[in-house]
Specification:
The chain is α+β, with helices and mostly antiparallel strands and 299 residues long. It is built from 13 helices and ten strands.
Amino acid sequence: MPKEILPVKTHTMEQLLAPLGITSQHKGLYVTSFNPSDVEVPILYPFRSDHFSFTLVHEGNFSINVGLLEYNVKKDNILLIAPNTVRQFLNVSPDCRLTSVIFTSAYLSATSIHTKNVEAFDFLSSQVSPLLVTGEKSMAPLTAILDIIESKIDICDELAFQDEVLLNLFTGFIYEVSALYKKQEKLGEIKGTRKEELTFRFLKILPQYFKEERSVQAYAAMLNITPKYLSQTVKEVTGKTAGEFIDEIVIMEAKVALNDPALTIAQVAAYLNFADQFFFSKFFKKQCGISPSKYRQTP
């Protein structure tokens, strides 16, 4: 029976918290403040996670690839990453200070926001940009709520009704962040252009179809525009063509799969829907300058 291929590793909440010295969380919720320069980042390759995360920046900045775009997350910014989103940490400033809010889909569902107010829940599942740009005035109440949640998690077993208190505090935090996203979304409607909207639509559908479709023509057809207009628009907005983004996501998945010695090159080629190992190797060498087998030998 052929080995199941999981080309980009998915890490659990526990695996990501362990390097911070954290071995427990409250029923799928954890809040922690730290300086990344004091912690060795163990994951430098692209990966997915099985949970949501919000990262609030209080000082400094860090860079990260989310999907196919690089974000420089600065002071008073919030980064939201949903489950199964590919991300890769790039660098962090020495003075960076963060608060991370990590929670499972099950804990989010317990708030019942999705049944009470769909609009408040919508930004978690369909946000165009994961980056929320706020100011000190907007960040202060969020930080205050998280400080209370962090302290409550530490004593939740000592007092009655703490599960309910934590869940309600977390619900309030989600509503507050949702309101800020809605505000940014309205500003985007005023400032944004049709070309920017088209580019984000392309980047949103690309991860869904890249294993089956690797032509600009296919994505242009999905978006009801010409291939030339799609490439020109994406190039104007991002500096890269649509074709370059398609090649990048295929190569990203290929490299991570090749890092698993248990997978043969033929299996990687099959997963990415290349006709055979020869065509995959030819594509890989054209993009990377070396063959898949040589890539595996590179330290």
